[in-house]
Amino acid sequence: MKYTGNISPTLNDLNIRKRNEIRPIQQEAAEAVDRHESIFEENSRLKHILKCQRCNVNNVNALFLPCAHHRMCMKCASKYDVTVCPICDRPIREIVKTFMG
Ligand SMILES: [Zn+2]
Ligand SMILES: [Zn+2]
């Protein structure tokens, strides 16, 4: 009995193999771009959130309790003698200074 198995890969096999090798790299590149964009978006979104709603200059560092809203800096919170949360209108029992980073 003669061995007739196909040992060397056909051209088609090679093409499939090549495509399979290339695809993950392209996918990775696309994902990297996606990641970069989403990090950038997240960053600008966070930056916007982290600015004090009142003065829009200082970073937010006053946490209102018990409602837990976090939209104002300590300066504004004490300057305007905030006793009611400007976001939800609930009375503030305590203002906790928070630290970022
Ligand atoms: Zn402020
Ligand atoms: Zn609130």
From TrEMBL:
InterPro entries: Znf_RING, Znf_RING/FYVE/PHD. Keywords: Metal-binding, Zinc, Zinc-finger. The keyword Zinc applies. Residues 52-89 form the RING-type domain. SUPFAM superfamilies: RING/U-box. It comes from the Eukaryota. The keyword Zinc applies. PROSITE patterns: ZF_RING_2. This is DIAP2-like protein. It comes from Mya arenaria (Soft-shell clam).
